[in-house]
Amino acid sequence: MTPAPTESAAAPAPTFGEPTPLGLLGLAIGCAALVPIAFGAVPADPLKAAMMFKSAAVLCLLFGAGCQFLSGVMCLANKNTLGGTLLTTFSFNWVFNWYVLDQASQGKGTDASVGLAVDLAFIVIFLVLTYAFGFFSKLLFAFLVDIDALYLLRIARHYAAPGGTAHDVLGEGLGVATVLLAALSLYIAFALLVNPAAGRAVFPVGGPLFKPFAPGAK
User: Fold this and answer.
1) Whole-prediction pTM value?
2) Nearest Cα to Cα of residue 29 among 178, 203, 192
3) In angstroms, rounded to a whole number, what is the distance separating the alpha carbons of residues 83 and 132?
């Protein structure tokens, strides 16, 4: 008689430890680097402005892109397709953020129409992923909703006249959404790191927002 499979055989141990906090901490640091720029606190002096853009560009590349790419690849190796897809895809967006900021530090710009087209593609992607993450946690759902808001604000700002009131208000909204994204990233990362160590929910996460479809249910 063939012995019943053990629990380890039925559910192999993941290749890596939980990599999601690494990606979230990198995201928080990348967002922090963008906060002064998002709120329009760019120095009038060209040299100081170039230094600000260059500093933010390096942090976006190392933490925003680097941490999320490494985390995403490890999630995929752990068979976490949803988290791995989100983190890896988002990491390449941070490479583009690095490029935009690096160009700005040299007094150059990027094509706005290409940026708009990419933002429109991203909002479709993230709206679907927002729904998917609602099956895991209300907090993760709120996290994705904030990302959705960021892209909607970016798209709306593209159509606002530069220097106008609407353009400035949308810019302030982007700053607030960026700060909120950093805060949510830190909170979820802390929950994933501290709660298992403490053996209790020091950082409550909450249950899922949606329930998966049960076979046979109407």
Assistant:
1) 0.88
2) 178
3) 10
Each residue of 46-66: pLDDT tens digit?
Answer: 999 999 999 999 999 999 999
Distance of alpha carbon 22 from alpha carbon 66, whole angstroms: 10
pLDDT of residue 183: 97
User: DSSP characters for 114-181?
Assistant: HHHHHHHHHHHHHHHHHHHHTTT-HHHHHHHHHHHHHHHHHHHHHHSPTTSHHHHHHHHHHHHHHHHH
What b/e string do you get for 60-86 counting C-beta neighbours within 10 Å, with b at 16 or more?
Answer: bbbbbbbbbbbbbbbbbebebeebbbb
d(CA 124, CA 89): 13
* All structural domains of the chain with their residue ranges: 19-38+45-195
Q: What is the pLDDT of residues 82-131, one digit of tens each?
A: 999 999 999 999 999 999 999 999 999 889 999 999 999 999 999 999 99
Tokens of 200: 């209790």
- Give the Cα separation of 129 and 82 in Å (integer): 8
What tokens appear for 12 in the block? 């192999």
Considering just the CA atoms, what is the radius of gyration of the chain in Å? 20
Question: What are the helix and strand counts (H, E) for the chain?
Answer: 8, 0
Tell me: pLDDT of 152 over 90.
yes
Q: pLDDT tens digits, residue range 186-201? A: 999 999 999 999 999 9
Residue listed under structure tokens 């329009």: 40
